[in-house]
Specification:
Blueprint: H1 2-17, E1 26-32, H2 56-60, H3 64-72, E2 74-76, E3 79-80, H4 85-94, H5 98-101, H6 131-137, E4 141-146, E5 167-169, H7 211-228, E6 233-239, H8 263-288, E7 295-301, H9 330-333, E8 337-341, E9 356-358, E10 363-364, H10 366-376, H11 392-395, E11 406-411, E12 420-425, E13 428-433, E14 446-450, H12 466-482
Parallel strand pairs: 1-6, 1-7, 2-9, 3-10, 4-5, 4-6
Antiparallel strand pairs: 2-8, 7-8, 11-12, 12-13, 13-14
Helix pairs in contact: 3-8, 4-10, 7-8
Length: 504
């Protein structure tokens, strides 16, 4: 049976690419920190006819290169990440949901965050199955550039080179940079910012090169090294932007001075535009090198928006979506996802639908691992469980009948929306809160929304749809059990597992 499976896999690879093993597509995974679905001029939401619909925030942000990639490829209106950064980053590297790999909270570089006793606060290790390590075995030159945040300081996973990357540019244990300014040495030259100083960019110290620009230049240099070696490359381009501190990228500051918004909001917008310039610079360089038709770009955010625009739980930072980074609402979980070739053409390894919005099905950050393995003809180890599926059928503009229609975000920790699990299945979304409320505001234990009818989560149907509520809770519990989820405890050290409403 295993022999037949392997033969089928090899035949599929030959059919998909029509290329020999030495001729594989380059891959750029372009990850942006704290960028939600609405932090772009590209309209990601659709109207009732499935057509892209612009909202207020789309008019505020300027992302011309995201627009370029969206015209050349396909974007998803319902793409899910975890609510905070480290869980998403580990899911990208492993293809597993956070409940399974147990990095369920952002990793504090120095101390262990509160949560279940056995949650994986030490992050990734060299013993873990990781995407770059598998690609490296398959002949890829693997490059990391930017924010890592895979493990705490002093643990091996804090250095991406221990996880399968040939080159590490500026990646380390923490996620918030000491400074974005070269004049500050990115924190190295300012004693107050030394704790979060970005490593390895000394050549740019005391210059006016912004951090987003520095890591892009170094990534381009690494790409050229790969091309000289005649090896396909995998670039994990992971921007520190747009994480706080909200410092203004001086290249774009004048564009927002009359916006009517606050200084932090304007600074956040410049961080977004600087990230967008990085995307354009990479695409332009690949065109100049004749590698654009051979390079697949997967653009994604790591969690919902953290734009400093107002109420965490309301409809400001992610408007019209509710909530932002760290919350259980769609504004905390939905992120931009765009897939396209750096240049569409006959040399593309497979066709991606152009200028399309895929709104019929969801996608998740776990899918990216499976998609890259599929696109590169790389095999997942038989003993490594993954929760994602290849997006290639959807990238072609098709409906994948085998695609799961559910997404689980398990967050048994104290943060903005504390101690919750969200479960999306089809049209419906459940928010389950565990009986710990570190805040002063009383919150309902159950929230139930029909996202097709109520995409902005304004009408809680938990009381009016009791049968649906119970059905969703049962399915959520089954998914948590399948992924061997961990749970927090109360002050009596009792494990708080989810259960049905009383009397059900």
């Amino acid at each position: 049976m295993r022999t037949i499976t392997l033969l089928a896999y090899l035949l599929f690879s030959l059919h998909l690419f029509g290329q020999n093993e030495s001729n594989k597509p380059n891959i750029i995974l372009f990850l942006v920190d704290d960028m939600g679905l609405m932090d772009t001029s590209v309209p990601m939401l659709v109207d009732k006819e499935g057509k892209p619909q612009k909202h207020h925030l789309n008019e505020f942000y300027r992302t011309p290169n995201m627009e370029r990639l969206a015209r050349q490829g396909i974007r998803f209106s319902q793409f899910y990440a975890q609510s905070v950064c480290s869980p998403t980053r580990v899911s990208l590297m492993t293809g597993q949901n956070s409940a399974r790999h147990r990095v369920t909270q952002w990793i504090n570089p120095e101390t262990k965050n509160a949560g279940p006793a056995d949650w994986n606060w030490k992050g990734l290790t060299s013993k873990d199955v990781t995407l770059p390590a598998l690609l490296k075995k398959n002949g890829y030159h693997t490059i990391f550039s930017g924010k890592a945040h895979f493990a705490p300081t002093e643990y091996e996973g804090s250095n991406p080179e221990n996880l399968g990357f040939d080159i590490n540019i500026a990646g380390c244990a923490f996620g918030a940079p000491g400074s974005y300014f070269g004049e500050d040495g990115y924190g190295n030259l300012d004693p107050k910012r030394k704790k979060r100083a970005i490593p390895g960019l000394e050549k740019y110290h005391k210059t006016d090169v912004f951090l987003s620009e520095a890591i892009t230049r170094e990534a381009i240099t690494a790409i050229d090294q790969s091309l000289q070696k005649e090896a396909p490359f995998f670039l994990y381009m992971s921007h520190y932007a747009a994480h706080s501190p909200f410092q203004t990228d001086p290249r774009f500051g004048d564009k927002y001075k009359d916006s009517g918004k606050s200084r932090p909001a304007n600074s956040f917008a410049t961080l977004i535009e600087g990230m967008d310039k990085s995307l354009g610079d990479l695409m332009d360089h690949l065109v100049a090198k004749g590698e654009a038709e051979n390079t697949l770009i997967l653009f994604v955010g790591d969690n919902g928006s953290d734009a400093p625009l107002g109420d965490t739980y309301g409809y400001f930072s992610s408007a019209p979506l509710r909530g932002k980074k760290g919350t259980c609402y769609e504004g905390g979980l939905r992120v931009p996802f765009i897939a396209g070739w750096a240049k569409p053409g006959k040399a593309n390894f497979f066709t991606i639908a152009e200028n399309k919005v895929h709104h019929q099905q969801i996608g998740t950050v776990m899918d990216i691992y499976a998609t890259i393995l599929d696109a590169t003809g790389t095999q997942n180890p038989s003993n490594h469980t993954i929760d994602g599926v290849s997006l290639i059928p959807q990238l072609k503009g098709k409906i994948n009948p085998d695609r799961p229609d559910h997404f689980l975000c398990h967050f048994p920790h104290s943060h903005r929306s504390s101690y919750f699990t969200t479960y999306r299945k089809g049209d419906w979304k459940l928010i389950y809160r565990y009986p710990i409320n570190p805040g002063k505001k009383p919150l309902p234990q159950h929230e139930l929304y029909n996202l097709t009818v109520d995409p902005y989560e304004k009408s809680n149907l938990a009381d009016t749809k009791p049968q649906k509520l119970v059905a969703m809770i049962k399915e959520m519990i089954a998914q948590l059990e399948e992924e061997n989820a961990l749970y927090t405890t109360n002050n009596k050290k009792e494990v708080l597992k989810p259960g049905l409403p009383s009397g059900k």
